[in-house]
Amino acid sequence: MQTLTVSALPGALGGHLARGLRRHAWFYGAILLFTAAGQIVSSLYGLEDNFQVALYLENLPVVLFAFLIAFATGHAVFVMTVKRPPRLIAHMVRDYRERFLLPERLTNGLLLIIALPIFFSVFTSFKIMIPRINPFSWDETFALWDQALHGGIAPWELLQPLLGFPAATVVVNFAYHLWLFVLYGLLFWQGFSLADPRLRMQYLLATVLTWSLLGSLLATLLSSAGPCYYHFVSEGPNPFAPLMAYLQQTAETHYVPALQVQELLWNDHQGGGVEQARGVSAMPSMHVSSAFLFMLLGWRVHRWLGWALSGFFVMILIGSVHLGWHYAIDGYLAVPLTWLIWRLAGWLVGLDPLFRQPAASGTSG
What we know:
Blueprint: H1 9-23, H2 25-44, H3 60-83, H4 88-100, H5 103-133, H6 139-149, H7 155-163, H8 166-192, H9 197-221, H10 230-233, H11 241-251, H12 257-271, H13 286-301, H14 303-322, H15 328-351
């Protein structure tokens, strides 16, 4: 594969840009359809002010800088501790010239970096519009279904003997907030990866489809707020009051940031503004859906990564209930639907002659 020198960088990137766009046809096509749907829906419901496509673009330089620093640091540590070459600097320079500064890798990553802020801006806009299009009405039903599926006992009550003490709650909360870094880390990794183009595109397309079809369309149809907001959207006794009381009590002596985030999101929901990482929606759980995608990707790459991300998926599923974010059924429904979308994405990508060449499994890069 041809390496890329600094002087040849502009011309090489220009020459590879068209091929990069062709490689990302499914990915960009799905994002364009999602954006068009958001524009149409916001116009139909008179919510044009809630629809934004550049909500996250202002953070792009910071995110890119953080990724580059994290990658450079991680690569340096890996080389120094694992490879231990006799000439450290020469080895690292050769890595960058022969492995990392490749036209295809850079254009792949560039296109991802441009697309993701737009996509997540549209998703956030959709999420904020959900209760304005279809007010929360499913919470009581989902709470009852949860109990029916678990022998008449609420799932959070079943978890309390295992997790109902501060140390466990802090660990679960840490994992739940770590989810965001895993999400972006895997997206950037696959965005720049050359190891398996078909798997890469399947993962990227599945990500767009799950967040669009599940996190926007299905979430609107099954509009619900979640256990932590149950008392705001449902009449009668609150079956989650003891759980929230436990979390509040734990937060008095330990760090439980989920409660602050829950309060922030509800205040913004009432204010009606459009800001980054905002919106209230429970069904289906996109934390669980995306964590399940992490696991599916992990098993396709390497066994150890599959086991690690499987454990992370279980932690997210449990944490979504223990921290009061979701009904258990939010995750239960997300898993099979995400698997179907994963298979659909693989089938769609397989229709493209560009991705019909099978790549060797168990590799990354």
